[in-house]
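TA notes, week 10

Several of you asked for a full example with nothing omitted. So below is the full record: structure tokens for the whole chain, then the designed sequence directly under it. When grading your own attempts, check the secondary structure regions first.
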């Protein structure tokens, strides 16, 4: 479904991604693992066309994404749930959800999808008129996920969805991601909770200093000595 082929990415004159290559198959959960600064978030931003690779290609269902503007990416069925949620704090919960359904297809199913989101996260229905900025951290993350679902994604990319959440809320968010995936949405996940994400994913790639250095199933990487030492504290 998604093919990243040898991309190089720069911030100005500073190169941060070197020849990164990986793929995501339909209905998989694929995880990018790495320390802070490894290039994980930059990779997601490049897929979303927030950044443009200097070299390499990005394909989604056979369409070249690296040649499209960011405004066209969501029309291909790709939704990016960013780090730190990036909600509209002075807009209501309902208005934030509506902002996730701006493509023609999503608009046509807006209220049907909103009912689905309220079923996943009942608190969003209860607080639909409340300003997003007044929600708790966990509720804001639920809203960020719900807003993403409003776009009718084929692929959802999550960047650090458990950031700042309690262990209990982290479990709930990961449970929702697994449920969303079980209903047919492909997932590409960036997350610091390496143990839990490797346990739930189909495959994973390890990034170090902007390069892909390891790949395998979640179990294979859980058993890898380098991963154990670098990320699992074993």
């Amino acid at each position: 479904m998604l093919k990243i082929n040898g991309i190089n990415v720069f911030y100005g004159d500073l190169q941060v991604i070197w020849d990164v290559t990986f793929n995501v198959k339909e209905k998989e959960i694929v995880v990018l693992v790495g320390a802070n600064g490894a290039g994980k978030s930059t990779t997601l931003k490049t897929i979303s066309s927030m950044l443009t690779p200097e070299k390499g290609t990005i394909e989604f269902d056979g369409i070249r994404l690296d040649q499209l503007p960011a405004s066209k990416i969501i029309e291909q069925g790709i939704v990016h749930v960013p780090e730190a949620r990036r909600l509209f704090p002075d807009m209501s919960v309902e208005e934030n959800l509506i902002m996730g359904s701006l493509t023609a297809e999503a608009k046509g199913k807006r209220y049907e999808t909103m009912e689905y989101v309220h079923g996943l996260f009942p608190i969003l229905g209860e607080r639909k008129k409340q300003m997003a900025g007044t929600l708790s951290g966990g509720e804001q993350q639920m809203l960020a996920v719900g807003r993403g679902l409003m776009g009718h994604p084929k692929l959802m990319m999550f960047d650090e969805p458990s950031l700042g959440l309690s262990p209990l809320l982290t479990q709930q968010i990961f449970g929702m991601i697994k449920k969303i995936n079980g209903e047919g949405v492909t997932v590409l996940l960036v997350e610091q909770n390496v143990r839990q994400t490797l346990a739930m994913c189909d495959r994973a790639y390890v990034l170090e200093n902007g390069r892909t250095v390891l790949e395998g199933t979640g179990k294979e990487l859980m058993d890898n000595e380098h991963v154990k030492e670098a990320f699992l504290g074993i």
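The chain has a mean pLDDT of 92. Use that as a sanity check on your answer.
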